[in-house]
Structure formats: C-alpha cells, structure tokens
Amino acid sequence: GPMVAGEPVTIGVPVRGLTLMVLDSRLRPVPEGSAGELYIAGAGVARGYEGRFGLTAERFVACPFVGAGERMYRSGDVVRWVSTSRGRELLYQGRSDFQVKVRGYRIEPGEIDAVVRTHPTVAFALTMAHENTAGENLLATYVKATDGNELDIEQLRAHAAETLPSYMVPSAFVVIDEVPLTPQGKVDRRA
C-alpha cells in the first residue's frame, strides 16, 4: 500500500510455505511486541551458501522447532510482531550486524542504546564491545548529554538495569562531548 509519513515500516506477512520466527539470542521465541531477530524456515530456505562454510554456519542454523534436520536462515534483521489494521505484521527495527557475544549471550548493542537513550539526560548512546586482557568482551556505552545536562553514570547504570537483563547492562559508560562522524556522516565507530 502507499507509504504514510511517520508510519513505521512493516515487512508484511509470511509467504506460503515459509515460517517466520522472531527469536532471542538463545533461539527462543520472544514475547509478542518484543524485538528479536527474524529467522526463516520452510521449503524455500536453501541449505547454505555454496562453498562458504563459515558464513553458512553463522547464517543457517538447525531449527529447534520444526522437523529434525530442518534448517532455518538467520536474516540479520531485528524485528517485532505488531498488530496493524491488516492483522499481525512484522515491524522492521534495524540490522543485527553489530551483534556481539558477552558471557555466552548473543547481544544486539542497538537494544542497549535504545534503552539508554530513553533517559532524559541522554542525547546520544552507542554501545560497543571491547575485549579485556582475559579475552572476554565487555560492553561500553558512549553517551553524550542533552544540552545543559550533566550525565550521572550511576543513574544511567540503574536506568539500564531496570529494563535490561544483567548481562546487557554496560560495564562502562564513557561520556563524550562530540559524536565522531565519518565523511559520509555515519557514526565513526573506530574513533
């Protein structure tokens, strides 16, 4: 249908013969309305990428729900089910290409950013994983204050902990004055 300004982008409903599942990092279905990663199973799903075993292992995973030996495709899209006038549809939330593993959990840093950004003193938040000397990933969230506000790190940590499971609460909050951008105007994650 025609796009309406301000309307969220819905992906629509599944094609016949394909099952769409919205799963968390442990491949469990997420509660209705919660964000998760889109997985696709069914007759139309290929067995993998020709000759690319690493990518295949990451993108095509054994499906815990349907018949044994069935594979499902991990789309890399973060979505959630929503009810629209047309029924139940998938709402696109972003990409999961920045997923990281922390304490054995697969984490979507964007979910942490979204929660931290709901704090009234936060204008910008970006979470990244940094490896410590023991080879473990630790989460650091880079935050910039809204104009005229000071950031209280303990307050931000408590705010994150209200919504997020403990393994997703950042180990460190780093206050930045400016958001570094690439020449294309995207956030410069390296910087």
What is the topology?
Layout lengths: L9 E3 L5 E6 L12 E7 L10 H7 E3 L8 E14 L2 E9 L4 E3 L2 E3 L1 H8 L5 E10 L5 E9 L7 H11 L8 E4 L16
What features would you highlight for this structure?
3 helices, 191 residues, disordered N terminus, GMP Synthetase, Chain A, domain 3, 6-stranded antiparallel sheet, Luciferase, domain 3, mainly beta
Question: What does this molecule look like?
Answer:
With 191 residues, the protein is mainly β. It folds into two domains: 10-95, Luciferase, domain 3, CATH 2.30.38; 100-175, 2-Layer Sandwich (GMP Synthetase, Chain A, domain 3), CATH 3.30.300.30. It has helices at residues 53-59, 109-116, 153-163; strands spanning 10-12, 18-23, 36-42, 60-62, 71-84, 87-95, 100-102, 105-107, 122-131, 137-145, 172-175. The strands form three sheets. Strands 1, 2, 3, 4, 5 and 6 form a six-stranded antiparallel sheet that branches. A three-stranded mixed sheet has the order 9-10-11. Strands 7-8 form a two-stranded antiparallel ribbon. The chain is globular and about 55 Å long.
